[in-house]
Specification:
249 residues; alpha/beta; Nucleotidyltransferase, domain 5; 2 domains; six-stranded mixed sheet
Length: 249
């Protein structure tokens, strides 16, 4: 068994893998002020008695990467690998500065290859990312504030607006403050996704484009969209597992 770890700004997603299959997933909240000793307490409460012999980490939070490396070294005697220079991905990157392309985006591209040669990936996490891949080549992306970021910005910037949970109201036009805010943020995000898909399809002129969504908020937003979109909650982990297999000696 191997362990793959996707460290995002909001959460750390883990996948236990047996050969080419993810057999179990679990998640921890990303908190950079914890020590490796604090992380192991939470980690062991989730992984219980499962055994693994190797670790590959994809991360956009360097300080948490360091904590996890120390944790696996100290408590499991495993030298965790980190997605970066020296790791083969099988992905070509078309970018002004390829080093600026985040590890999570590379994993999204790798995981999307099963859907065909032309795929638009929509990752609804802390940021909302729209990535286009053609023949396993990263062709470009657009990045917008995520749904939770927009919600927090709204309540932080307007003194009279209260905090609220991300729940979908039954109607777009509502009659109380909380529902009105929920509608604006959630239906507004769905409209953004639909609008960005239209613009991207117009720009790339691809008739056979598959559209795949992932990320923590995808199951909330995508059902409200008008386009046909495939939900794949484990896309990043699947891509990370593919990358791991390419690096086994």
């Amino acid at each position: 068994m191997i362990l793959i770890c996707d460290v995002g700004n909001t959460s750390i997603n883990f996948g236990l893998c047996d050969d080419d299959k993810i057999v179990r997933t679990f998640c921890l909240k990303t908190l950079a002020d914890r020590s490796s000793d604090e992380y192991i307490v939470l980690f062991k409460s989730l992984i219980e008695s499962d055994k693994f012999s190797d670790v590959l980490i994809s991360s956009v939070v360097p300080v948490v990467t360091s904590l996890l490396i120390k944790m696996f070294d100290k408590y499991y005697n495993i030298k965790a690998k980190v997605l970066g220079p020296g790791i083969k991905t099988g992905i070509m990157i078309k970018a002004d500065n390829p080093r600026e392309v985040g590890a999570d985006l590379i994993c999204d591209i790798a995981g999307s290859s099963k859907y065909g040669k032309d795929v638009l990936i929509i990752d609804l996490g802390t940021a909302t990312k729209y990535m286009y891949q053609h023949n396993n080549t990263f062709m470009g992306t657009a990045i917008a504030p995520g749904v939770s970021v927009s919600m927090k910005a709204l309540t932080a910037s307007a003194a009279l607006l209260p905090s609220f949970e991300l729940q979908t109201p039954k109607t777009v036009l509502c009659n109380n403050t909380i529902s009105c805010m929920q509608s604006g943020v959630i239906y507004g995000a769905a409209c953004e996704v639909d609008g960005m898909i239209d613009r991207i399809k117009q720009e790339i002129k691809c008739d056979n484009l598959k559209i795949v969504a992932t990320g923590g908020l995808s199951s909330l937003i995508i059902p409200l969209c008008k386009h046909e979109i495939i939900l794949d909650k484990d896309l990043v982990l699947e891509g990370l597992l593919q990358i791991y297999r390419k690096n086994i000696k």
